[in-house]
Amino acid sequence: MIRQLITSLRCLFLLALGAALVLPVSVSAQTAQQAGATPAASGAQEESGGGAEGSNPLASTSKLDFVSTFTKSGGSFVTDISAEGAFMLHPRVKFVYELHYFVTDVTGKTENDWETLHLKPIWFPKDFKLSKVWGMRLAVGGELIIDFNNLNKGIGTGSDQVGPLVGLAFMNRETGLALIPLVQHFESYESGAVSQTAFRVIGLKPLPANTWVKLDAKVPYDWVNNAVPFNFEL
What we know:
Number of helices: 3
Order of helices and strands: HHEHEEEEEEEEEEEE
Radius of gyration: 18 Å
Distance between the termini: 40 Å
Structural class: mainly beta
Number of strands: 13
Strand order of the largest sheet: 5-6-9-10-8-7
Strand content: over 45%
Largest sheet: 6 strands, antiparallel, barrel
């Protein structure tokens, strides 16, 4: 039954990917104002994906990125190749999706296969104007993580997970600086192999020539192993 669900979700991912390519890639400020949000008060400006806003999970943006990340630890390597997209279902509802493919030698020989599919709806119930230049956005959502059952290759966790989340986005309208604290809990609903609460802080600062600096610090607490596998990205 679970495998049938995964097959259905694969189809859903392809539909979502197609929708991201053909739907409008942004929600205009006029539409946002009709929904009761003003760009000045919003915790994140609304624009097409890419740039600093494209890296902000709480921004009202649409995007489709292809990312490759290489990490090496303890003599083994992992290459994570992913498609990461998002589009707005409504001025206050964002749908985020990710598909990950791994190449790794953690088992002693090089293996490659699909790792996980992530489906994440996010609702923005309220925007706040804190001052003339600072705004704040509240976000509430959840994530469904489908594991492709390749743990024998050293890929994935071998367990599907759900992950409710809550976060805030603080945006400086003049400088574009964004500070985004998030809390998300991941729980495997079949085997109990995963039970982790992650505290995450993202900092984004736009720079000239359409470049930006991103700070992404994750401090998860692993309730199964009583460990804190800290993760820092710049």
